[in-house]
Amino acid sequence: MAGKQEKPEAYGIEAEDLSPRQADILRLVVDTYIEGGQPVSSLGLVDRYDVGLSSASIRHILSDLEKYGYLYGPHRSSGRVPTEKAYRFYVASLPGRLPPANFAEEKQRFIQKEYLRREFSIREILEVTSNILSALTNFAGVIIGPAPERAVLKHIELIDMGQDEVLVVIATRSGTVYTKTLFVEERIPRDYLLQISRFLNEKFKGHDLDEVHRHLLGLEIPGERELSGYYQMLSRILNAHFESVKGKEEFFISGLDRLIDQYGSVDLEKIRDLGKLYEAKDMFHGIFKQTVELDDVMVRIEGDQEPRLAGLSVLAGSYKMGEKTIGAMGIVGPNRMNYVDAIRTIEYLRILISGLMTRMSN
């Protein structure tokens, strides 16, 4: 690959070097294949685009690209198809930050209606968002919710439930309410539970639950010795509970079946078994969890890293509550997709859901 080289990098992908002419032809092949789903020939490119090259010259470039692993020919003399390496180069060549989708009024009304007809809670917003992502793209819509430890405490209440049980109720600024029955060694007087609740609210209101977890055991509650003993007992149990739920975010994935319905062709021949896709849900969870701290949309074309996901691309972007990044959302689809439309759809919805989450926190 002599001459000036092109090495694009965007959306978390760094591509290998190609000459400008090779890069241009490869992008045209991928564009054509994404649109039509048929192997692309040199003659087809000449007929379709004004590339200023003869069919023979393009055929030579296609042959080189096949040799370098960017293309393959499924059948002799029928044209070439992009490999996952080609899709990576293509995505890395896209503009670094695409604008949000500018949906037609009809689609905007559909999105608004989907949110408005549900109960206004974080869980409902997450579920609706995964459904909307799937409906807009015809791929699987995925969203991972805020980790419990990222939630900001609004109020905590400890309630006597009987001989050896205390109910802890944790309300967060986002509107989520967590409840947990704690089993204690001996019954704690209600007045003490009230004092401990008041103490915890004074110390931790407005702080995230991870901070509560980190500082709970180191505090001394003012007051008589018996109260302090009950506080130490409760704080140990609460601390163990916070540890047990750490990192257990809610996760929604909608529309996996759409992948088979819409793209049951050569693109998905390796993942036709829908059951295997459902088995891979934990893998998708892990991938999306990795993107929570990223600012931009990330694209992962998975086949080389995980053979079970060959033929699939994962696009994910984070969303916020105020200035704090709290979760990630996106799609799982075939390598053959309109990446520009998909990225712009994710950009639109992550801005929308960030606004919803921020309003809920206020």
| Number of H- or I-type helical stretches | 13
Gross morphology: elongated
Which sequence of SSEs, written as H and E, runs from N to C?
Answer: EEHHHEEHHHEEEEHHHEHHHEEEH
The CATH class of the largest domain is identified as: Alpha Beta
CATH architecture of the largest domain: 2-Layer Sandwich
**What's the count of strands?**
12
Kindly summarize this structure in a few lines:
With 362 residues, this protein is α+β, with helices and mostly antiparallel strands. Helices cover 45% and strands 18% of the residues.
What would you say this structure looks like, in words?
By secondary structure, the chain is α+β, with helices and mostly antiparallel strands. The protein folds into three domains: 9-92, Arc Repressor Mutant, subunit A, CATH 1.10.10.10; 105-146 and 249-361, Beta-Lactamase, CATH 3.30.450; 149-245, Heat-inducible transcription repressor hrca homolog, domain 3 (Enolase-like, domain 1, 2-Layer Sandwich). The protein has 13 helices and twelve strands. Strands 9-5-12-11-10 form a five-stranded antiparallel sheet. Helix 1 (20-36) crosses helix 3 (55-67). The termini are far apart. The mean pLDDT is 86.
